[in-house]
Write a structure and sequence with these properties.
By secondary structure, the chain is an alpha+beta fold. It has a single domain, classed as Phosphatase 2c, domain 1. It has five helices and nine strands; from the N terminus they run ββααββββββαααβ. It has a five-stranded antiparallel sheet with strand order 1-2-3-4-7, with helices on one face. It has a four-stranded antiparallel sheet with strand order 6-5-8-9, covered by helices on one side. A hairpin with a 2-residue loop joins β1 and β2. α1 runs antiparallel to α2. The longest helix is centred in the first third of the chain and has 20 residues. The radius of gyration is 17 Å and the shape is globular. The termini are far apart. Pfam families: SpoIIE. It comes from Streptomyces cyanogenus. One of its GO terms (molecular function) is hydrolase activity.
């Protein structure tokens, strides 16, 4: 089955740009919406505009193509690789996880705006100064809502446990996806996209 998750990243000079998208629904419609959202995001990013304007451009592109009641959640991020200053806009997405000193230090909880396509107001840009070695994990709702055998969700606590284990062992983010797949007996019921950014200073 085709799903609606997608991501994009690019390093322009000293600024790393990253986005994670989760389009509503399943099948070809969701995949098409995710493609439009990513295309709009890339176009806006290449124009060199700020996060608020990137959100607005992506929001309008999805609304114009798909009409009302269709949307995609998004996590848009910019990291200054020189200073470690990270800025992000949360458009209806789960808050990212911050890993510091080889353990989860918390979630980057911040004000959210409406998902793209719903005509949200100008978003509030959140900021944080990263420390050397910090990792920020962005993810769609799939890793949390994935159902365990018998109907139980994988859940946020288990996701954080996976990230803590990843930090202790020094393994890459792919280890989290492998854990998800093993917990489902090799079959998944949800799309699950994870994107980890590390600032090495």
């Amino acid at each position: 089955m085709t799903w609606g998750d997608s991501f994009d990243y690019a390093l322009n000079g000293d600024v790393l740009h990253a986005v994670v998208i989760d389009a509503m629904g399943h099948g070809l419609d969701a995949a098409t919406m995710a493609t439009v959202a990513i295309g709009a995001y890339r176009h806006a990013r290449r124009a060199g505009i700020g996060l608020s304007e990137i959100y607005d451009f992506t929001d309008r592109a999805v609304a114009e193509q798909f009409g009302p009641e269709h949307f995609a959640t998004a996590q848009m991020m910019q990291l200054d690789t020189t200073t470690g200053r990270v800025q992000w806009v949360n458009a209806g997405h789960p808050p990212p996880v911050l890993a510091r000193n080889h353990r989860v230090a918390g979630r980057l909880a911040a004000p959210t705006t409406l998902p793209v396509g719903l005509g949200g107001a100008e978003p509030r840009i959140s900021e944080l100064g990263l420390e050397r070695g910090d990792r920020v994990l962005c993810f769609t709702d799939g890793p949390v809502e994935e159902h365990r055998t018998g109907g139980e969700e994988f859940g946020e606590d288990q996701l954080i446990d996976c990230v803590n284990h990843l930090e202790r062992t020094g393994r890459g983010v792919r280890a989290v996806t492998h854990t998800l797949k093993r917990a489902r007996g090799g079959r998944t019921t949800e799309d699950a996209t994870l994107l980890m950014v590390e600032w090495r200073g």
